[in-house]
Amino acid sequence: MQSAAVPSTLGFRPFAGQRIAVVGLGRAGLPAAARLRDWGAELLCWDDGEAARAAAVAAGLPIGDPAAQRGFPFDMLLLSPGIPHIRPRAHPSAVAARAAGVPVLCDADLLFRAVRASGSRARFVGITGTNGKSTTTALVHHLLLTAGMRAEVGGNLGPAALGLELLGDDGTYVLEMSSYMLERLQALRFDVAAVLNLSPDHIDRHGDMQGYAAAKARLFDRQLPGDVAVIGMDDASGSGFAEGRAARVVPVSGAAPQPGGVWAEARALRDDQGVLADLDAAPALPGSHNAQNAAAAAAIVLALGMPRNAIAAGLHSFPGLPHRQERVGERAGILFVNDSKATNADSTERALASYDRVVWIGGGVPKQGGIDSLGPLFHRIAHGVLIGQSAADFAETLSAQGVPNEVAGTLEAAVPAALAAARRLGVKVVLLSPACASFDQFTGFDARGDRFRALVAQLPEIV
């Protein structure tokens, strides 16, 4: 019988004799290429950016454009998730691979192949959804660790999948899976797969909502009757995802009873056997959306064999994620919340619903529809402070609904303006939840959130 010990990597070459083209040498691609080289693959690596190619050369990796190779002589193409292979415009390497009948894969698929080649029966958990997947992924990992179980976390969140360590039979890989990754799976089978929700996003990549939903549903491909499919039931997509599953379906909700599943009732997390935890004692999980995240995480760890009496302690000690309703400081009794990861209105809606009254900092590069869908929650915004490319349009929308606001333009101006407004109006929460991408002023939502945190720390102490 296979030992539960970590498999030895001495002489471990699961990709020996395989030619792999690696395109995209960023956060995921560069470590993936290095790991594949160490595991015996014959590589050709490429990035359209000169600096990334230089970094690969410095790492001792072979550089060349695989699309220029006659007949695309490779066994697979590992293509960075952010690079399109079909829509809106396929990368030349993907065009060449598809013409040659070569599979286009993501690194999570190759991790699965390597783990199974090592003889390990470590379990794989996949978590997706338009919103909440990062929080749920981190929460599942936290719960497993607090229960003394061995686990690695990564994928779309944190370390790239091929940067994770090999685990033995007692280990669990907890992977956040984007739709971009899911459409590039060929071998990976998830012992536990969870879809939380679905709302319009990435339509340019998937063509329409049907294509987007189909990409998400690939999480359940290859599941067997002994596996588990955790389905969020708090939006209309849930029933569709639950239909026709080979695995056992476990419904979850942050608001309504789900017989056979896990749900929240007035902040009490429970299943058919009774209460699992008091969510009011979990400060990093406010709101009904986080109640559903907690329900999904609990359903996942229960399926993995975690004792139910260990769940409450793990939920209560969860620190939360950076940039996701992250409490970054207080001044004069006013809490500053960093929800920079809210890059669309649907995500901001969940944050606004978590607080009765806020000074809201929003704006950036707007998504389709702007903030019109937030109308039912505008009464919770005591004052809006607007930044970035969308500031003027958002100001017009808020003003038309009678919501006081100002255009600050930059985050540097917005933070002190928000503090002043909160003090003047007696509001206890300043919420950065932009409902926009960040690329007009920042390199990403994380850079935006980091800057917000730093600006809050620089605010003067006020008695």
Describe the fold and architecture.
The structure is a single chain. The chain is of the alpha/beta class. 32% of the residues lie in helices and 21% in strands. It is built from 15 helices and 21 strands. The protein has helices at residues 29-38, 50-58, 92-100, 107-117, 133-146, 179-182, 203-206, 209-217, 237-242, 287-303, 311-316, 345-352, 391-400, 411-425, 445-458; strands spanning 19-23, 42-46, 76-79, 104-105, 123-128, 150-155, 171-176, 192-195, 228-232, 248-253, 262-265, 268-271, 274-278, 326-331, 334-338, 358-362, 365-366, 381-387, 405-409, 429-432, 436-437. The strands form four sheets. Strands 6-7-5-8-9-10-11-12-13 form a nine-stranded mixed sheet, sandwiched between helices. It has a six-stranded mixed sheet with strand order 14-15-20-16-18-19, with helices on both faces. Strands 2-1-3-4 form a four-stranded parallel sheet. Helix 14 (411-425) packs across helix 15. It is globular. The mean pLDDT is 95.
In short, what is this structure?
The chain is 32% helix and 21% strand. By secondary structure, it is an alpha/beta fold.
List strands and helices in order, with pairings.
Layout: E1 19-23, H1 29-38, E2 42-46, H2 50-58, E3 76-79, H3 92-100, E4 104-105, H4 107-117, E5 123-128, H5 133-146, E6 150-155, E7 171-176, H6 179-182, E8 192-195, H7 203-206, H8 209-217, E9 228-232, H9 237-242, E10 248-253, E11 262-265, E12 268-271, E13 274-278, H10 287-303, H11 311-316, E14 326-331, E15 334-338, H12 345-352, E16 358-362, E17 365-366, E18 381-387, H13 391-400, E19 405-409, H14 411-425, E20 429-432, E21 436-437, H15 445-458
Parallel strand pairs: 1-2, 1-3, 3-4, 5-7, 5-8, 6-7, 8-9, 9-10, 10-11, 15-20, 16-18, 16-20, 18-19
Antiparallel strand pairs: 11-12, 12-13, 14-15, 17-21
